[in-house]
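request received
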Amino acid sequence: MNDSNAERDYLESYRPGDYPSVALTADLVVFAVNGGVLHAALVRRGSHPFRGRLALPGGFVGPRESAEAAAGRELSEETGLDLGTLPVHLEQLATYSDPGRDPRMRVVSVAHLVLLATDGATLPAVSAGTDAAGADWYPVHDMLAGGAGGSLAFDHSQILAEGLQRLAGKMEYTTVAARLLPEEFTLTQLRTVYEAVWNAPLAAGNFTRKMTPHLEDTGRKARASTGGAPAALFTATDRYVHPPLSRPRQE
Amino acid sequence: MNDSNAERDYLESYRPGDYPSVALTADLVVFAVNGGVLHAALVRRGSHPFRGRLALPGGFVGPRESAEAAAGRELSEETGLDLGTLPVHLEQLATYSDPGRDPRMRVVSVAHLVLLATDGATLPAVSAGTDAAGADWYPVHDMLAGGAGGSLAFDHSQILAEGLQRLAGKMEYTTVAARLLPEEFTLTQLRTVYEAVWNAPLAAGNFTRKMTPHLEDTGRKARASTGGAPAALFTATDRYVHPPLSRPRQE
DNA sequence: TAAATAGTGTCTGTAAGACAGTATAAA
DNA sequence: TTTATACTGTCTTACAGACACTATTTA
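response:
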C-alpha cells in the first residue's frame, strides 16, 4: 500500500452535497429512584413543536464530539446536574431515525440511558436548560401506563419505554442496579431499586441469598434509624450475575 | 395550543448552519452459519482509506429513509443478496460516532445485525457493490481471534465483535437462532447454530429437553441422509425462552 | 418489653448436567 | 448387521421460591 497519490487524494474525495447529511442529537433517559419509585427527569418544552409537552432532555451533538460525550455534556446543560460530585452510569440505548420524527427537519437521535446515584430518599435537583420551560422528576411506571402527564413529545414515549426495558433486562444479569445507589449500600436499598424498576415485590430473604455472592462486604454497618438490626454495607464488584436473577413473570 | 402563528413559524426555526450536521451511514453485520461455523459477509475495500482491507458492507442513509430501511437497501445493493426470496432478521445494534473514526470527514454509523437463513450446508452468494473490490464470507471466530484477514477497516472489528456478542447473548433468552435456519429445522440443526455462535459444544440430549417446549412440532420428519433416525421438523414459536439457556462458561 | 428490620435456616419442587439406554433408518 | 443419528429416561446436584425463625437494634 504505497500509492501516496491516492493517499493524498482521498481526503478530498467527499464534498458537501455528495452525500446526504442529518442533524444529530443526543437524547437522555435519566433515571433515579426515590421512595421506592423509579423516576425519570423530563423537561417541559418551551417552544414548538410540542410546546408545553414533556420531553426527554437532549441536544445537538457537536462537530468534534461523540454522541456519548454530547450526552454527558447535555446532562449537565439541560438538567443542571453536577457531574463532578455525582457518580453517573451512561450507556447508549438506540438510535431513532424515522424521517418524520421531527416535523421541522431531519433529526436523528442517539438515545442514552443515564443512571444517577441517590440514597433513595432525595432526588438530585434538576433545572431547565435552554428552550425548556421547566425540568422535574416524574414516576416512570405511572407515565408509561398513560397516567400523569400523558404521552411525551416526538417519539420520546417510545424511547422512555425502551430505556426502562433495557434497564429492567440488564438488572437480571448484572449488578448495574447498584449504579442507582451510593458507593456503599445495604441489601434492602438494592432490593428497593429492583422493586422500583421491575415494579414488583421481591422476597427479602431469597434476594439476600442470591445477591450476596456478587457484592463485596465492606465490614461496615449502616446505622439503624428506623428500629431493627443495622444492615451490612456492600459495594458492587462483579459485572455479571450468573445465573441471572429471574424477574417475576408479569401478567 | 391554538397559537397558529407560532405553529407556522417553527417550521422555519431551523436553517442550515444553525446546527451541526453529519453524514449518516448504515453498516451491516451479516451472519450466516455454514458447516457448523459462523460466517460474516465482508467486502474488500476498493478505494482509500483502508484500500484492500476487509470491511463491513454499508452505505449512506438516504434523506427520506430510516437507518433500518437503509440497512435493508444496502444489504441487497452491497452484497447482492436477494431479499425477496430470503427470510431475513434485521435489528439495530449500536451507533458509532467517534469524531475520528473516518479520516475523510464526520461519519456516524448506525450498525445493524442481519441474520440470514441457510440450510447449514451452503452460504448465499454475495457479490461486491460499488466501491468494493469483492465480497465473501469469512469465519467470525477466526477473524476475531486475530487469525485470517487481520483487523478490519475503520472501527469495524469492534462492531463485528459487538454484533457477535449481541447475537450470542440474545440466543440465551430468545429463539432468535432459528432465524439462521429455514422455516422448518431439526433440533440438531438448531444445536449446530448454537454451537457455531457460542463456539462451544452442547450436550445433544439436554439441548433437546430444554428447547423443545419453545418450538412447535410440525409433525413432519426430515429425511435421514446420513444414516440414523429421521429428525422431527420444528418451527420457532416463542419469542422468549424462560428460564434462559445458560451458555457454557468460557475461560 | 414491644416493635421493626436484618439475616439465616429449612423444606419442596424444578431444572440442569451427565450419561446410559432405546429406537429408527441408511449403507 | 453394522453404523450413525435421534430421542428418552435416570440419577445426582443445585438452586429457586416460600416462609419460619433468630438476632439485633430503637423507642
